[in-house]
């Protein structure tokens, strides 16, 4: 599984909604070996500054045939703020593709994607891939419509597409887990759930899936220093032992059973 | 400043000696920041480096501390990994075979909970094919027993040194903690107890509080501070220890660029270890090595040892 | 996280007590980074602050160390000023009159070469109108005799404490050096010797080499490291000392923002000192103060003491 | 002497020659109280980054009636490199005006300004000021023409204007001290020298001036943390004692006699 640490030129970086950016860089080498659910580590510091010190992990959101990769991200702190100031033509160092992405399960004709807020980021490539084969159900939730400005990228992929927002500004008023409950009531036959979003949401999704005996893959987040298994910092407790999963190396996508959901950081 | 008057014709000689150990150049990867080597495959050409010091190994496998284990600080990184590692048996069985094929000197970092444990691990490594030296970590701030407790007490540090010396014929580097009042005291003790070399510094004990959750940011409360922030402290201690003992000193702490490495070599370090900088940019060590070579060529310095400043 | 459930109606109470000394809020200016106050005229409203701790004063005026005295490091500053100051007589005659008109608590930082000198300066300040407290610097890394030598030896630290206590009725804050193996040992000693409060940390001993000139970057070779780089170490030590002694602890080291200050207050510091950040931005202390107030209002915290995390 | 620490908007920042920039910001308050030879401390870090930590001192090069101040500087390291990346419209924090500038001596009809390289930066305002009264002689030296791209700002001010470059690419081939030697041979009557440039140049200028009993003011540089007398870091040894001058507070302009020129840092 080849990985590359390359200086990538910024093609564009529009602000899609308040604090949400879509960064597109040219990185053909990374693109060629990228799988749905994988991520990259992006250098956010300027020039020779060492503050912020660490790179930031971002999921690969979209790829284009011409070697372009896009990252969909939210400005939440120092690092993402600096990144958002970068302009087309500038260079940003990108290390990737990293981690184990989603595993496609052949005997599951119905795939339910559950995304919360910017947790949709790793799901687009997956949705595109699934779309070529089985039945794709997409459920997306957010606080309000402006938190998910790229929703059109998903809505065209399948007619089984539902949105819930807490303030009702888009789709149904409520939580994405409400949508999932409805879906689980309706579907018959084998299914597979893929989810990414805030920890409490994923936890709820997993417990709902387990009740129905539906396998569930989750994409986790953890603070990372290296993204490639060197530092052992990105630990998440395992469900079955004293040990830890390492989000960057064995993840970020895990079978939800593996994770100790009761551990709160 | 040394001007480029007579550009040398031979390429500079970067090889160094640490006791009986010959390294092809003075750039090593620091323990805990290069995994077991494999993780860097394709991102850094290990064959180019002077050596690789693998993650600290204990007798038994250890899961390490609960998360969160990492916090970024200004120009620094706090970690509380807590010596998660596969244990000596699995290291020899599963990791060593791959490492034997790498054309660099393999140094194994070890950590015990008692003097006996240090000796036991050292003995196990003594016969292990491919292992070129041992780095004895008496400075880990992230484990309850052992670790730093040995490094802050000169007498205990000497005891570990003697025990490991007895247990193995491998060259032995003692890695010191900076969390002490007088680093030269510990350094002198381990030198006279038979250490072949000293490496320093391990991380400085630090902490951070998450003001949003109103809790210590690390589950373990305290962690070890590394990265560029600590470079001035590391350099000062290396300078002091170089002038206090007669054995080789290896400098580590915040080295990210060739200029950083040159500061340590000028202070008298025989070699340098790259730690946190590898986490930030996997190729750092190669870049540092190239920069040292360039500087030596530009300034007509033939041997890397000659970088040391005159007293 | 504390949510804004019942926004409080009164404005938060920021005043604190350090022994018999009442400060209107917990934000002070650290010694050596605010001159004698006048230098900040027009750039920072001293009247708003909890206190100002003027540059360390010795018996005799001192010219300080030769230049270069400053080097920037990653997120840090190395200084080797070496306690340049006007001496106690001139301080009382020339600087104090201006300072008396400032509506903040004036704390005088003092440094001696011997226990007797500390006592002598303290005695001179005892009668000086306008002086509200003394901060005893047993932690300066930049002077040959005295300074850090007292701070690294718990016994010597206690001796200075007792001598100053005897010489003055003013509240006495002992300022500790971080360059020790176990900060709680020194803290306990000075607490039981009668200190009214402890402030920490002074700078960490560091150095830098100028690879162009191939010389130490400071004329004095070593210097004291301050700034954001050292914040994790300062916070850890404050956390430890708060839990080791019963007297108030004042936190200092790398505080540049309200969030930084809140970390120290949550760790249990009664107050904070702003050092290097004032050099970088003269208005920092006012900004920190405003941010603490905002946080307390937003989280319905009535007293600044309540910021401390529950055990 | 009022000083201000203000966020100043960048008007423009052309690169005039390789690595030499002319940064113009809007800072009317600072301009109003600025005197020739004074400087400002400019924040060079981005956003919340604390690396580089310290501000950088730059002389006030030029002022315009509309509240604009210009700094002429050379990219020499991390800080100036970051500053040079800033674009029009962005904000840079500026603290100033700082220090003691040049003192105009009324009974000196002939004023000789000696600038080396970018040491000309603090001399333009001074030249403009002198020009209104006495006789202005300007001598400028540099390695080559491209090191002094703003030479036209000076050349129009007086007909007593001479340049020397080491490679002969502009003016006379040689050193600015050659020009000074010629000038000192030619002039008669009372004179005053003002100089700024590399330490060895200023030292040579001072020793030449002293030989002729001509008073000489020099603008010094020193590493600075605060620029306002708080840290006592910017020390330069005095000629007459163990003590030190503080460049930011008592300087940057000093009577050359006060300085111990034999001290080399
Ligand atoms: C595998 C993976 C994929 C991700 N994909 C995306 C994505 O596609 N879009 C997106 O908007 N965000 C994504 N995130 C979260 C993103 O990495 C953080 O929001 C970002 O690191 C915050 O950096 P900051 O400097 O702005 O925030 P700060 O809070 O200033 O960051 C301080 C430190 O905390 C770490 N940190 C903060 N929040 C997180 C977080 N949620 N997860 C991990 N580390 C964090 C930072 O990396 C940094 O080291 C992903 C995280 C992981 C682990
Ligand atoms: C009063 C004064 C006025 C100045 N005016 C000008 C001017 O108008 N134009 C101009 O090009 N330069 C001027 N300088 C020099 C300028 O400040 C430095 O070139 C600049 O600080 C270098 O910063 P850097 O980060 O690019 O270099 P680095 O070498 O990376 O800087 C590292 C540290 O050294 C300090 N430093 C480096 N060189 C100098 C220097 N020569 N003097 C003082 N500190 C230095 C920096 O401030 C910083 O703290 C002036 C200096 C002073 C003291
Ligand atoms: C994540 C992490 C893990 C580490 N693990 C070890 C270890 O197992 N054994 C050891 O001796 N040092 C360990 N260290 C310390 C480093 O080897 C090094 O001494 C220290 O980080 C300072 O160097 P740096 O600033 O270049 O990182 C670790 C450091 C980090 C950041
Ligand atoms: C330039 C400078 C001068 C200092 N002088 C003194 C001093 O005279 N007395 C003292 O107790 N501490 C002195 N200090 C230490 C500071 O008061 C403070 O303890 C230290 O810098 C850490 O805080 P900071 O990171 O906020 O600067 C000085 C620090 C600096 C940077
Ligand atoms: S982030 Fe370093 S091991 Fe996962
Ligand atoms: S730079 Fe701080 S006193 Fe001059």
Description of the molecule:
The complex is a heterotetramer, with two copies of chain A (265 residues) and two copies of chain B (311 residues). Chain A contains six helices and 17 strands. Chain A has 265 residues and is of the alpha/beta class. In chain A, the strands form three sheets. In chain A, strands 1, 2, 3, 4, 5, 6, 7 and 8 form an eight-stranded antiparallel β-sheet that branches. A seven-stranded mixed β-sheet of chain A has the order 12-11-10-9-13-14-17, sandwiched between helices. In chain A, strands 15-16 form a two-stranded antiparallel sheet. By secondary structure, chain B is α/β, with parallel strands linked by helices. Chain B has one domain (16-307): TIM Barrel (Alpha-Beta Barrel), CATH 3.20.20.70. Chain B contains nine helices and 16 strands. Chain B has helices spanning 88-100, 115-126, 148-151, 154-167, 183-192, 231-242, 258-267, 276-280, 284-298, and strands spanning 16-18, 21-23, 27-29, 51-57, 70-73, 76-79, 105-110, 131-137, 172-175, 197-200, 204-207, 209-210, 215-216, 222-226, 249-252, 271-274. An eight-stranded parallel barrel of chain B has the order 3-4-7-8-9-10-15-16, surrounded by seven helices. Chain B has a four-stranded antiparallel β-sheet with strand order 5-6-14-11, with no helix packed on it. In chain B, strands 1-2 form a two-stranded antiparallel ribbon. In chain B, helix 7 (258-267) links the parallel strand 15 and strand 16. In chain B, helix 7 crosses helix 9. Chains in contact: A-B, A-D, B-C, C-D. The C-D interface holds C 32-35, 39-40, 42-43, 55, 63-64, 66-77, 79, 81, 84, 219, 227-228, 256-257, 276, 278-283 and D 2-3, 5, 43, 48, 50-55, 93, 95, 222-226, 228-237, 241-244, 249, 263, 265.
